[in-house]
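Schema walkthrough. Field components (list of strings):
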Amino acid sequence: MIAAGRFLAANWGNVASILGLIVSLATLLVARKAKESADAAKAEARRRSRAEDFQEAHTRSEQLGLFIRDAKWDIVFLRSQEIVSACSLVLRRWSDELTEASKTQIVLAREQAGSIARVAMRAHRIPPTEHQVLNVSAAQRRLNELLSAELGESLRVVERSE
Amino acid sequence: MSKEKEMVDLLRARTESGSLKWEPTAADDEFLTSVGGGASIFIRAQTARDPSDDTPDVLLSIRDKDDREVFSIYNGQDDVKYQDLRGLHELARRSALQIDKTIDEILQDLRREA
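Field assembly_structure (string):
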């Protein structure tokens, strides 16, 4: 005990330095863990946000089908324009996270929605023929299929990370 | 050869080989495909104004990744001839409507029953 006291008295500076180093390392470790947790939470929030963007576009696409069935062309025009915007937003916002295959699917979905909007825009002047309505309906089904695939993929990513 | 002609030739070759798929849109006789960098390509045949004319006008247009129309060829331009576009439109139609696949399936079924 006396020897330990003598040692501390003789080397108090070194002991204090080592203790300081240990405290610094512990603080660094805690800070690093906290940063990792924050980054993981941020990534999780981004994944969820992406899934929500797809969910919104997909819901609109389903509604579009009902409005086509009821020949409500003004609303078809509005909804399809909203889907065009939603797809453009997804492509810009999630550009780094999306695979090339996903980008292609979303571009196709956007163009299908755009083609529906162009037909709907003319429809209040010249009512579409039955054949044209069938084409619009087929385009809406394809749009829904493309968005469903992307929604499914984004939900799968969220579930895998949980 | 111009870039436009090369592009049309490559689109025809890739469609013919089946490595490029087209799909129908909401518009009559309009087909769509998407290629690298997020660009999309439309080809559309428009019914001629004169009913006795059986050569419809053909429009090829390209939209960039931001959905802006950046380029179009209407019925041919410079060394891209009307026939090139008409041929591409026909190939796109066969690809989009899966005409060959449908005919093959019918033939297969008919041959089996014969």
